[in-house]
User: Fold these one by one.
Assistant:
Number 1:
Amino acid sequence: MTKNTGNQGRKPSVLDNVKPLLIDVALPLGSYYLFKDAFGVSTFAALAWSSVVPAVRTVWGIVRERRTNALAGLILAVNVVSLLLSFVSGDPRLMLAKDSGVSSTVAIGILVSVRLGKPMMTAGMKPFVVKGDAAREAAWQRLVSGAADESAAFRSRERTFSMVWGLALLAECVVRVVGAYTIPVGTMVWLGSVILIAAMAIGMVVSGGLAVGPMERMLAAEVEAGRAERPAVAVAA
């Protein structure tokens, strides 16, 4: 009798699916603001320390896995550029505008990924649609591979999801840059965070209506189609 050791055969949880996104994006960005705002370290030091995880992930992907980690590499590039800009001092408005560089670089990366046919935001959206269910995972694979009737529409919605987020973050960057040079510095220090939160809220609402909702309906229909197909195959056999 064979024992089931470790986590073999365990159904992946939502946390398992979103863990790469949390490590590549949330941890570096969160640590930057934690070091800078909570611990009061300099911008340069905060950027340097928050670059450790994406640097390790990027190097590990190249050396060990023979592939590049797009999200980790993108965040690392943003931090490197920001570190170089941090040498420019004496202009508080420039420092405020510089903070929007993270959003702009990520936004451009997302939009380029859509253009290349590999929407970057799918990694964060898929777990919430599939919900760790094997039947939904199989239906997802059929839809993205072109094997299902709704594949073209499904892939279009997938691209739309990333497009919405790319545009939302790009708009947030533009608004923050304009605000950095037109609004009093003291006001813009806290208003910048409000603008970022507003952009994320708009991104969630719009992408949910234009992409996630329709994709969930198509996925549910494909799951039912798969279940109906299995009995027919069994009878034929």
Number 2:
Amino acid sequence: MAKNDEVYSRALEGKSIPILTLDNKWHQLFTQTEMTPEIEKLADELNSLVERDGKIRTETKNIKKIKKKLLGEIMPLRDQANKSGGSASIEKEIQDRTRLINECNDKLASHEDELLDLSKEIYDLDYQLMVETMKVCYETLHDNTDYIKTLDEWISQVRVELKKNVIKLQEAEMENYNLYSYMHQIFGPEVIEIFDMKYDPDRRHPIRRPLAGNESDYVE
């Protein structure tokens, strides 16, 4: 037994394992991760066993009903045979029903043995399916965790770069604004009227300040 199987066995000791293919939540797992060929194979085999188990149980119920009916018919026939002094035809009917009851008993015994075997086969196959399911899910979780970690590191780096660039942007915009203001004060609006047509800091490059707590949002 593999090491993982031993771990799972200890974890499952004394616990009831549901038949996975009959559990809708198990099917929902594979809306989040891919079902492998091995899981598909095990699921098909398990479904076949469960279908056979259901068929045998239905047949067992029907056989028990037939046996009960036959047993109910024998007593009146026996009373008739006693009253008639042992009629051959009645005795034959009793023998026929006795034979059918014995056949029912044989089938019931055979079904009982098969159900015991099926129960073990279903449990073993269900366990294998559970192990394969856990392997796939944990592998997906592991891969996603690595991917999340990589993205988180990238976001952290970008966040640092964004913060630096926001500061550079603010400094450049402030420099432009100050230069423009000083030029207005020194030369006057008439002198730089032509320049005004090409550059307007309030329209083209407004000074933006980051909102508190989020450097990616700005106010003018």
Number 3:
Amino acid sequence: MAYQAGGQRSELRPVPECPEAQAYLEDYAALLQTVPFPSVVVDRGWDVVLANNAFESLFRGVGPHPTAMPWDNFLRFVLFHPDAGTVLGEHEARWCLPMLAHFADAVERHAQDSRLQAIRREIAQDPIMEAAFRQGLPHWIRAVGDAAVEHDGAIRPLLHPDPRWGATDCRIVGETPRTLQRLGYTRLTLVMRQPRRAASASRRRAGVRRAAGHLSVVPAPEA
């Protein structure tokens, strides 16, 4: 089906019942495949609705995970997958905190969303991530302002598995047409810049598998 991203899903995502909306998504999936940069369409809970081949290629090296594969739910991938740092450079400061900020805003606006509440419970089970969410994140949001919950325009580092890219940066571009907005979806494209050739191979591989309690960038408060 056109609404499925590549890779193996733990479950199928629902699609609009309206035939016109389904047809639109099928055509939009074809459009997405023409984009050379990683591009993904997500719903408000960050479940992936559509993803192009470039998106799948970016994350092709990550290991299996029951709930946090990048083509299943991108928020869960960033927060919970132990391999996230192998692809998302400066993972804690440049990816985790902005995503936590976006999540905090989403869970406040959609408090009854069961998927968001499930993610909130998982955060609470990780003491350091919970400390970051409850104590560290509000200070960080005040420091950076509204940009904390805005992905469009942000520049973030990537460690692409393709050696032609390697260690590089991407600009996140939000480009959601009105029809996708009406369906409750958001499209994000990672526009990759020229690779940083000076970066060492060791940094490319510095993707550091993390365990629970990984958010050292926001230390737990002292007792």
Number 4:
Amino acid sequence: MTRAAKPSSRQRRTPVVSPEPRELPTTPRGIRTRAKLVDAARTVFERDGFLDARLIDITNEAGISAGSFYTYFDSKEEIFAAVLASVEEEMLHPHVRALTAGDDPVELIRAANRAYLESYRRNAAFMRLLLQVSSIDEEFAQLRRRRGEAFAQRNARSIQDLQERGVAKAKVDPYKAASALSGMVGRAAYAAFIIGEEWDFEELVETLTQLWANSLLISTGDAT
């Protein structure tokens, strides 16, 4: 009987999230060390790509002993997920209301679009890498889908609030509308910062804002 060949290290799958998620460190030293590893991992992943990145390169970049890695992470996949979580935290919570002078819905949409596009531009190298990894790894594809759902759910709540206040006149399902509009903004960010379309940034912000507001039939005048 011919013995089946062992899968290569690139073919073997390691769970991205363990059944019992590891607790985050609580000591100042542990928090600093984990943060160093995550920052170093991002540098290595963006420089070498996910498949070619090695754990020894990450620990060297962080200036930490190789054995210390396993105090905080079990695998390359797990630390990649930690990098993704740190990027998501920035992009999902831009504190938009603090960026505007009032509650004008169009200004809030404009501020949200600007914050997202600026964040995407800052994180373009990692976003490009995430697209590549998601295309070859189903677990990360699922993480990406959950990321999209989180954006859509947040925006759906905003759309529903505008509808209930009579500001947004469009009779559309808030979640479906949020998914479509968020997809539009995400695709525009991909075109601008990954593909390299030479679009003026301010014009892009204004175009997306107008399309978003017009599609929801947001009232102008006294309501805005």
